[in-house]
Amino acid sequence: MQTIPRHPSTDVTPANASAQGAWTVADQAVVSLASFAATVIVGRTLGKEALGIYALGPFLFWLVAGVANALVWVPYTARACRLNEVDRRRYRASNTVMAAAMAVGLAALCVVGGLLAAPLQNWLSPFCLAMAPLSFLFLLREHVRRVFIADFRAAGLLLLDGPIAVLSVGSLLTLSHNGRLTPSVALVATALAAGLCLPVVWRLTRGGGVIAEELSRDARSNWGFGRWMLVVAVAWLIGDGVLRWMLLGMHGMDALGVFSAAFSVVMLANPLILAMTSFARSWAARVQAADGTPGLFTHTVRLTLAGIVLAAAGMFLLAWAGDFMIQVFFGEQFADPQLVLLLAAAVCLQAVAIPVDAALTALELGKKMTQVSLLQLAAALLVGAPLVYAQGPMGIAWAMIARSAPLHILAWDAMWKHYHSDVDLPKPSHARA
Predict the structure, then answer these.
(1) Would residue 209 count as lying in a domain?
(2) Number of domains composing the chain
(3) Does residue 383 fall inside a structural domain?
(4) 297 within a domain of the structure (yes/no)
(5) Mean pLDDT of successive 10-residue segments in the chain (433 residues)?
(6) Is 210 left (phi over 0), alpha (psi -120 to 50) or beta?
(7) Is residue 429 in a domain?
(8) Which residue of 241, 285, 325, 413 has the fewest CB atoms within a 10 Å radius of its CB?
(9) Main-chain dihedrals φ then ψ at residue 121, nearest 5 degrees
């Protein structure tokens, strides 16, 4: 396999980019609202403790899914737009096989965990067993979503995520009405709804064909960049996971339920945050391929300024309406206005960094992103550990705010230095003469 010149995407016009961004946000809105509705159903039906158990499921999945994000989705997003159509289909098929292998491995680990926890005779064993189908199907569904967003085909996602949302919420409402809802049953029900993605996964695999030699070469190529992103994912997993488990151990499941309710309301901003994170990386890769580093730098500055305005408006809106929404959706026992305010500030600070994070990904500055993530981890643990002990859920919110500082400072420093050096990217390795 020989290296070929890059094939800049021709679909990076402002009009098309705006349309793709709108479709991406719309699809993420469907996904996030369905997730929020599921959380409300479980919390209303089963109470604080059950909500805490249920909320651990998607939370832990998204942390572990950082492995697939690092080794499959980020490399595909950064590189696919620089391949011709034939090689892109082959690269897409290879990455789909990698994602499927990770899904199988993750599900197997959950089954083993459930069997090992069985003698404890508590919530942990059924929780782990329920996480097996959830991990498998959620990972494949997210793979489909990331590929469609990276390929600027986000409009087609609504045809998949709409039915999944209806099936997921409908099944939970039915189980609640029949008195058969438990945290583990809720996890399995939401997982099975995501199974509608399987025909699409099959088409992605068959569309380009899978050859063992190319699969191995693509895996090694992804590892070259993805290994740094894997460290980023692990650091994020440790930072969030440790603090939440500390909250559970020090203050009990009720405290975790209160935090989960406040976090769920604040994360109503997810349709914008998650959608723009995925879309911004795809857009940045296309801008870099077409206009080089100078064009990418200008693009990043403009998006960041727009992000500051949107984030400020979002923070005030969430702080104003968040506590009221908690009482409406979950009940007065979950209310904590100050927690909502701090979580809103933390999430909005994270949102402002989306454009520069996308630029570093497009430039494949994985080592610098790793350094940033390790400093974020240190800041989160140094601030969060004592505050979780002293203040419970508030400690996690303060830690989320503290870890934003290294991201903004070091990421922009790296972007500025790369802009002045204007070092070109390596050509895509997955290419044919």
Answers:
(1) yes
(2) 1
(3) yes
(4) yes
(5) 42 70 85 88 86 85 83 87 85 92 94 88 87 95 92 86 95 92 92 94 80 82 80 74 78 79 75 77 85 86 87 79 74 75 83 87 81 80 81 83 79 79 52 42
(6) beta
(7) no
(8) 413
(9) 55, 45
